């Protein structure tokens, strides 16, 4: 029983570590604006809100 709990804990920690350290390339698929709201469709958005904000601030500016 102890081995199962220990193994499960190791697996969960590895998965969490992978999710937080993976540096995926975020790509913008499309952007839509309907007059009052804007929607940006992306591929592989970061997991945490702080990473999403950092990505948005660091992304290169593109002229329409």
From TrEMBL:
A Pfam family matched in the record: DUF943
Protein name listed in UniProt: Putative membrane protein
């Amino acid at each position: 029983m102890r081995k199962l709990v220990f193994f499960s804990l190791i697996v969960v920690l590895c998965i969490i570590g992978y999710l937080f350290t993976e540096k995926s390339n975020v790509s913008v698929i499309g952007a839509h604006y309907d007059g009052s709201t804007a929607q940006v469709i992306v591929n592989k958005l970061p997991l945490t809100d702080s990473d999403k904000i950092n990505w948005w601030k660091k992304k290169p500016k593109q002229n329409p």
